[in-house]
Amino acid sequence: MQSENLSLYLHIPFCDSKCGYCAFNSKINKNHLQSIYMQKLAVYLRDKLKNLQQKCKVQIASVYIGGGTPSVVESHLYADVFKEFLPFLENGAEISIEANPNHLSLDWLRAMRAFGVNRLSLGVQSFNRQKLAFLEREHRNENTFLAIDYAQKAGFENLSMDLIYGTPLCDEALLEQELKTALELPLSHISAYHLSLDPGSRFYRQKEQVYVESQKRFEGEFGGFLSIGHFIKAHLEKFLHYEVSNYGKISTHNLHYWKGGDYIGIGAGAVGCIGGVRTSMPKSIERFLEGFSEQKEILTQEDRELEHLFLGFRSCVGVERKKILNQKHLEILLQEGILFQKDERVFAKDYFLGDEIALFLS
Q: What is the pTM of this model?
């Protein structure tokens, strides 16, 4: 039987509060549904793996538990979920979980380590009190530092942290201080994201003029998005820059996505893609609990090739030269030094130009 190398994403939609910038499928005032939700999550996961196992030998290379806020769910409620996927894990598989510094306890972290979680991603976003308030984050710096201390005591060696820049409060001095603080912590990975007004977020719906104008001022101070990215990269030079927003020890799970690998998505609003068929589950927690049929979308060859370009040029994955149809434009970018070739793959010298490169070659 042929083996199928997969990644697994598990979505935990619960949050104690909803940040204004958040467009993810996260729900507040639903914590009373946590127990039944986690039971259903295990059932759907079991069914999915059973069906796949009938077609091929399933091997899971990485697991990512995201949200929402996975750390608001009590640790014992994860037991049945882990029991379903642990038998399918490859040796040394990466298991990541997201957490809010405000919710972490030493007992919860020790329980996650006992389940096999070996990578912790902390949603810190900022070390500045005013910026945290603007982003509507409830934690304070002392929560962040205590969470890291707990994580180390629980045995986590692979620690990642999310930071956001591009707010109205950001300037060169603030960003420099935030990056300096992050570099003083025992982190193996940093994700630095530019704040965006994404559909589905309250910031997007409000589109406050003061926010739009101040963000223009912020980008103007640096000379545009590209220069901001270079500023971040320069201050994180001790970390490997392997994707436009990611620095440090390469995440197996992220890399699997960017290589175009197949993945399972389980949970309210979760998306999966196997063999060019994209599946999605309902965003509503109640609908998820009632039972449903996954929505399916068959990706065209054009869709898959375009995704290959976008993901490849914004990361260390690169793009197979033979999959680039516009060879004339490719030669131009190679001659100008914007791209370089190694063996049969082509790479961007500057990941911040990845989207523009993909569009130029599509």
A: 0.93
